[in-house]
Amino acid sequence: MPLYDIVLADQTEAAALASSESPLSSFPGFTCKPIDHVKLALLFPILDVATFEDAINALEPVVFGSNDGPFVSLLPPRLLDAISSIDPSGLPDIARNWGSSEEFARDGIGARQAEDFLQSVVSLWQHARSERRSLFLWATP
Question: At what angle do helices 77-84 and 111-130 cross, to 10 degrees?
Fold first, then answer.
């Protein structure tokens, strides 16, 4: 079963993330299963950050633990800044729009999980910026 985590780390630590079987035991972050690359890419056009196709390219893994994973993708600061700039009163609408996708429905999740994810990202991104660090999507098949 695939696992997905959002992890705060320095860009020089990306290889360490890729070699870890449990990055959250060594790095701050949160489990975001089942928010994966495709669901994240769907968020880009909703926030007017990029097209879905450009988002998929932007989320390509930057480091591979092996051919079978884990895979580590740098979350683009422009996406994280866009999420952070969402007015709190508009967050439920963004989450509802994003969480109503077919991909969310297929995994049995919806707007509530989307909103929880967005709130967690905002908090972690604020922390990352204050430390001049990055956020990564760590994934294992």
Answer: 110
Question: What values do phi and psi take at 56, rounded to 5?
Answer: -60, -45
Classified as helix, coil or strand, 51 is coil
Domains of the chain: 3-140 (3.40.1760)
| Ramachandran angles phi, psi of 3, nearest 5° | -125, 145
Mark residue 107 as left, alpha or beta (left: phi above 0; alpha: psi -120 to 50; beta: remaining). alpha
User: What are the angstrom distances between the C-alpha of 37 and each of 31, 43, 90, 98?
Assistant: 14, 10, 24, 14
pLDDT tens-digit map of 69-125 = 999 999 999 999 999 999 999 999 999 999 999 999 999 999 999 999 999 999 999
- Amino acid 34 reads P
**Model confidence, pTM:** 0.94
